[in-house]
Amino acid sequence: MAHNPRYLRRLLLIAAAAAFIYIQVRLFSTQSSQDAGRVVHAEADQPDLPVAAVVIMACNRPDYLQRTVESILKYQKAVASKFPLFISQDGTNGEVKNKALSYAQITFMQHVDLEPVHTESPGENIAYYKIANHYKRALDELFIKHNFGRVIILEDDMEIAPDFFDYFEAAAKLLDTDKSIMAVSSWNDNGQKQFVYDPKALYRSDFFPGLGWMLTKSTWMELSPKWPKAYWDDWVRLKEVHGGRQFIRPEVCRTYNFGEHGSSMGQFFDQYLKPIKLNNAHIDWNSEDLSYLTEDKFLIKFGKDVANATPVRGSDDLLKAHNLDVDVRIQYNDQSDFERVARQFGVFEEWKDGVPRAAYKGVVVFRYESSRRRIYLVGPDSLRQLGV
To answer: Which of 35, 48, 140, 233 is catalytic?
Structure first.
């Protein structure tokens, strides 16, 4: 049988078939590996997840809303995938809803609560209760339903700076890695033209600025269950709420609040809001090294700056500061003393839960007459807290 021609042909056919099957298996395996490589590569080429959703909180001011949206779209179009836009309306104002729905690139959310508002004290403005409720509903929807990792909150009376989105994209990395930072703001309470100079300067602050700010989902999940019925921004400023965490703020504002008419009835508008300088300088924030803002580094850097400033003592602080061509520091003894000194210069006098607006370790810093010079208003315990 070994020499049977049929048997030999059969063996040759079996061998050829086995070789063909082996080659096909190898080809399939190679092709699968290549396809897998292409799949991995394709996934790597997918656009990154959004940096943050941007929500505009609106109610009953269609003209304000239009001005705000047009300011945002001017700079958002180039980064639309990184910063998806939402408008959240509180109430049923038809003009606001129609205006919001007219923007195809913006997702509209509406919060309608017809339940009567019960204030905790007689005569309180119910608007503050409605606003707090609206914030909670909107942020719950964005963080929980839509599952965004970060959200930037704007109001319907704000214009933004050209580098607004770059600023928040760079700051997002810092917010994710430094858990001592609770939120990042685009606002400086003492950002009036006469008090600012450097568009690149950023600071840590113990005071929550609000007015254009970003927080993470993990922080919201902590805040949401205990969110207050009213006055949400002052609530965030309580030490028991922020728990020693701080906020990043710019020297030169990245938002401008034009809302002279609203729930606060134009409070402080002419003195504090109208003169705010909105940044117009181009800053490539993603090329900036922001590591100096981490907790340990900023404490050392800021402490050295305060220590190197020339002490000024006496009742006429403004005159003495004017006569010196250097950074100066002026110590205040308590809240009333701070208010006296702040009034001389024209910066915010207000405190919340023992912290002056824009303060870090009790120190409020601002520029003197739009110059490079800094004025430091230093609390009685500030130098010890700064380690100097």
So the answer is: 233
